[in-house]
Write a structure and sequence with these properties.
The complex is a heterodimer of chains A (308) and B (222). Chain A has a single domain (6-295), classed as TIM Barrel (Alpha-Beta Barrel), CATH 3.20.20.220. Chain A is 39% helix and 15% strand. Chain A has eleven helices and eight strands. An eight-stranded parallel beta barrel of chain A has the order 1-2-3-4-5-6-7-8, surrounded by seven helices. By secondary structure, chain B is α/β, with parallel strands linked by helices. In chain B, the strands form two sheets. Chain B has a four-stranded parallel β-sheet, sandwiched between helices. Chain B has a three-stranded antiparallel β-sheet with strand order 1-6-7. The longest helix of chain B has 17 residues, at 39-55. Chain B is elongated, with a radius of gyration of 22 Å. The interface between A and B is medium-sized, with 36 and 30 residues.
């Protein structure tokens, strides 16, 4: 075991894992995050806490991850490269590990122009692949990025994201290979609607043998309405087939149809060789996650002892 | 070249508003080429200031001079007399020029007429685009001659990110994704293997982080 967390233990046992995402609040309250964690903890194996997603200031992912821990659930703390340099990130990683956080997801981060402080200066001292590599060096070689040694290394299960739908398409599996080479233990993908393109991506992944070296969790996003799905279809790096958009448009109860689609996708994704779990991104609709997990036939969640 | 753009006329006028004797100084290098602060723009500026101040009923004396370059002290010597007679010097050079003028004319107020934008070139007639981030440690041999530090909106060395779409960057649809350009060029040249290794974190100590950087050439020193 690299970190000794629940997510790692379940993956090691060969369980099909379920993770979900919770966005911290735009305020100093722990209430929402704790109630979401309490609601989700028996339905998912780990909960991602986003790091100022879409560059909007929110409660920090380290504090959010601690609130999740306090509810008895396992957090995946997200770290982006947008706001912090290698000094700050390494410091946060040491702090997080010292507080019992076992999983960190390494992201480049959304550009600040999408957020509520477009005049902010970005950092991007590292990119996500260099971040993965830095964490692996800290954990496995007990070395800081500068090469200096440390006494007590952070035991972290290292995650990364990958978007199978961004361009250039034929490069995405190569880029995943770079993340694996850098030291990623698990991958959470961008939300999948376009199964055909995802199948092609996974074929390339299997051809390179990457599915045996990294645990790939397929991302899904339940759409609450036709408008929401339509908006998602315009986001760069998202691919939503016409047929799904039509289904949402025609739906009498769009929320139900959104859940139906999500559940169907999970059932299909589960059959894909190399997919070791599913990551449900229902930010601002966290309450729907238990229903999706249940209807996808993923209950009860297997038990694994949480680290002391 | 250094690419610059004139500040809005109202902003320039407000910078020199308290003064009655103005010296407008142009530069014959980059800002002449990018049509921001050469001889022609200096004369236009002088006329505009005279006109604006005349309309306000506060006439002004405007002298002009365009030096070969503002970023080398010896070229500033011919300005001494006019600078002495002026209350304010309005530099139409880049930020470097403004500072060299301020250093030479310690007793004169010196203000910028331009916003200095970037190191770039002419993409098409009338369009200048950034090409170099001046990071002090060139990586263009690794990326097919396309700079990810400045042309990728996140300066990724191991791109592209998930926001590359149809060859464009997610933050501005009209901006080409640098990593798509790099990929296409390396593919065309049969050099895609350059993209397999993970490029390590960059050493930014050669970049802007430690006060003004210097290049010293002993063979060129007096």
């Amino acid at each position: 075991m690299k970190a000794g967390g629940r997510l790692e233990a379940l993956l090691e046992r060969g369980e099909f894992v379920v993770t979900a995402e919770v966005g911290p609040p735009k305020g100093a309250s722990s209430k929402g995050i704790r109630s979401h964690a309490a609601l989700l903890k028996d339905f998912v194996d780990a909960i991602n806490i986003t790091d100022n997603q879409t560059a909007i200031v929110r409660l920090c992912s380290l504090a959010g991850a601690l609130h999740v821990l306090a509810e008895g659930a396992e957090p995946v703390m997200q770290i982006t490269c947008r706001d912090r340099n290698r000094i700050a990130i390494q410091s946060d990683v040491l702090g997080a590990a010292s507080l019992g956080i076992k999983n960190i997801l390494c992201l480049t981060g959304d550009h600040q122009s999408f957020g509520n402080h477009p005049g902010a200066r970005n950092v991007f001292d590292l990119d996500s692949i260099q971040l993965i590599s830095m964490l692996k060096g800290m954990r496995d070689e007990k070395r800081f990025q500068c090469g200096e040694e440390m006494k007590v290394e952070p035991r972290i299960f290292i995650g990364a994201a990958e978007n199978p739908f961004a361009d250039p398409l034929e490069f995405r599996a190569v880029r995943l290979a770079k993340k694996v080479a850098a030291g990623a233990d698990f991958i959470q993908t961008q939300g999948i609607f376009d199964l055909e393109r995802f199948h092609r991506f996974m074929e390339a992944v299997r051809e390179a043998g990457l599915h045996k070296r990294v645990a790939i969790l397929a991302g899904v996003i339940p759409a609450k309405s036709f408008g929401a799905m339509k908006y998602m279809s315009t986001v760069p790096g998202m691919s939503i087939p016409r047929a799904l958009l039509d289904r949402m448009k025609a739906a009498e109860k769009p929320e139900e149809e959104g859940v139906n689609i999500c559940v169907e996708l999970i059932r299909e994704l589960r059959k894909v060789e190399g997919v070791r779990g599913v990551h449900i991104m229902a930010v601002a609709w966290e309450s729907i996650v238990p229903t999706i997990v249940e209807r996808a036939g993923l209950l009860p969640r297997p038990q694994a002892a949480l680290p002391a | 070249m250094i690419v610059a753009e004139r500040k809005p006329m109202e902003a320039v006028a407000s910078l020199v508003a308290p003064y009655e004797r103005i010296l407008v100084v142009g530069c014959g290098e980059c800002v002449t080429v990018c049509m921001a602060g050469g001889e022609k723009e200096v004369e236009v500026m002088a006329s505009a200031l005279r006109l604006m101040r005349g309309k306000e009923g506060r006439p002004v004396t405007v002298e002009t001079e365009t030096v070969q370059r503002q970023c080398e002290p010896e070229y500033l010597v011919p300005l001494d007399k006019k600078a002495e007679a002026a209350e304010v010097i309005l530099s139409m050079g880049c930020g470097v020029g403004v500072q060299f003028l301020a250093e030479r004319f310690a007793q004169r107020w010196v203000v910028p007429a331009l916003d200095t934008k970037f190191a770039g070139g002419v993409r098409e007639a009338g369009v200048w685009e950034e090409r170099c981030g001046l990071c002090g440690d060139c990586v263009l041999h690794l990326t097919g001659g396309i700079c990810p530090v400045i042309r990728c909106s996140k300066s990724l060395l191991n791109g592209p990110c998930g926001g590359s779409h149809g060859g464009n960057c997610e933050i501005k649809r009209e901006t080409r994704c640098a990593w798509q350009l790099i990929y296409d060029r390396l593919k065309g040249l049969g050099r895609l293997e350059l993209l397999t290794p993970v490029l390590p974190p960059k050493d930014w100590s050669t970049a802007r982080d430690g006060g003004p950087r210097q290049v010293v050439r002993e063979d060129a020193r007096l």
